[in-house]
Amino acid sequence: MSNVVRMSILALSMSSALAIAGASSARAASEADFKAAYAAAEAANKEAGSLRDQWTTTAAALADAKKAADKGDFDAATASAKEAEALAKASIYQATSEKEAWKALEIH
Q1: Residue-range definition of the domain harbouring residue 26
Q2: Number of other CB atoms surrounding residue 53 within 10 Å
Q3: I want to staple 29 with a disulfide (CB 3.0 to 4.6 A). Which of 13, 52, 64, 78 is the partner?
């Protein structure tokens, strides 16, 4: 698989994940919803870190989630936490898919 195809797949996966994360629910998010979403985002970000592929955008989304939660805006906090999780999962996908793909790009 070419690098262009891999990057297209990554971009499509990330945009799909962000669209899902950004979808609003019919009810207002609670503090418990935020805490669950934030914990999932932190776990995914920790996994990305273990793969040495954490994205700065993930850290920014986590910070935004925390700020919104501190203000009591659990809808925005939960949305930012879900965005952070989607970004972390995209970085995990990138790290795992590129783990061997670089060999195909090496000049022989």
Answers
A1: 3-105
A2: 18
A3: 78
Higher-pLDDT residue of 6 and 74 is 74
Give the global pTM.
0.72
For 60, phi then psi, to 5°, come to -65, -40
* Total number of domains in the chain: 1
Which pLDDT band holds residue 67 (cuts at 50, 70, 90)?
very high
Alpha-helical runs (H) found in 51-73 = 56-70
64: tokens are 């935004």
Integer Cα distance of 69 and 35 in angstroms: 9
